[in-house]
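Why this split exists: single-chain examples teach little about how molecules sit against one another. For that reason, every record in the complexes split bundles all components of an assembly together and asks for one structure covering all of them. Below is a record exactly as it appears in the raw files.
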Amino acid sequence: MQDFGAAFGLAFHLLAGMDAELVEIVGLSLRVTFAAVFVSCAIGLPLGALLAVSRFPGRQVLVVLFNTLMGLPPVVVGLLVYMMLSNAGPLGVLRLLYTPSAMIIAQAILVTPIIIALSRQVIEDLNNEYSEQFRSLVVPFPRAIAALLWDARFTLVTVALAGFGRAVAEVGAVIIVGGNINHVTRVMTTAIALETSKGDLALALALGLVLLIIALGVNIAAQLLKSTARRRAYA
Amino acid sequence: MLEASALRAANHRVEEAPAPLPAAERNPLVVRGLVFETPRQRIIDGVDLELPDNRLTVLMGPNGAGKSVLLRLLHGLLTPSAGTILWNGKPPDGRTRRSQAMVFQAPVLLRRSVLSNLRFALGLRGLGCSRREMLSLLGMLGLEPLADRPARLLSGGEQQRLCLARALALRPEVLLLDEPCANLDPASVLMIEEALMKARAAGTKIILVTHDLFQARRVAERIVFLHRGRIAEISPAESFFDTAGSPEARSYMEGRILV
């Protein structure tokens, strides 16, 4: 219990002193996560909207598939990306293994199905409300998609935040494809795993606290957005 | 319909360029043997209807008579199970709908400001409209002070008036309204009816669904009475309210429940 208290004390000391190593790890984590979420949203939001509005054979199969992929095991994704990017793999020539780019790819693969599945649900609900009016107004398909995405923007930001939450806390995939190399691919979650195994609980706890603060910040942002949207009657 | 065609043919012979049709002849509607059914129920059951002129037509009938479904069929939002609908001799499609506008019973508005809702609809038709023109249109329906408010914050009556303003902004040749005044206060009803009268005077063909007898008396020039998916009666409004010809319409006006 005493060790636990001491570790907390050290953690706060590291945080308050803006320890250089800690700042570097947190910075890389945020960079990788933001990039992965950005890529996932760029792919996932239009796909989710298309899936919500279009009717074609096999659509229901795709809906079930993306819902299932929301629970993709990170280590499996890590392994697949590792095999793709390793020297013997089809994308080995890109030499991305053990780089932040590989971590971004792995996280994007994990987050994109979440963005597609959740945005599909959000847009489909909105489309149920708008579709008859859009048909009456003869709204062209691309314009309808754009209008739905724009009108659902507040809810879609919370979808992106859900993806962010998943990515920032992820460890299995990034440790496989990033390798947890100091000053290169070490992020918060992989550092926590390493420091814990080494017995350096102070740094692990400090990183854990930062992760918790980020998660808290994400949830506060989501709540603020929801209440703002409701206040402005856009929800 | 045939007379109009003959008149048009005669005009072609006399003049080099075809003269535009007078407002009263535009958008004749002909419906033949119209049926709409679901696996469980036949909702529209063999409707024949001709609305050759632009007299304001009110579709009346008890709940479940098929009024709203008929309106959606006429607008091309539903596909008939059998029969034909011809606007100007053509079945309803995207092109027809571009010359029409429909106001639904439940207002459907984008999650944007009042003005942005108008701007969105106008943009679809490539219609330019300055802020002042839009404000003037909103003013006609008592919405000018609310122009920059989020549309979904408006009251039910205001939302419905905005839907009508959006429809009118498109300058439709045909305006279809599905119980636009249901559950509205008298002031909103009055503003909507005044706007409809102005549109009617400007030559817009209006088909209004209502089961409000008082409203029908105020605005209708022709009544189409529906019962169980069939047309029980088509009459000029004056004669309908004086001496309705069909037993269904008489029962309805006497307040007896129709089943």
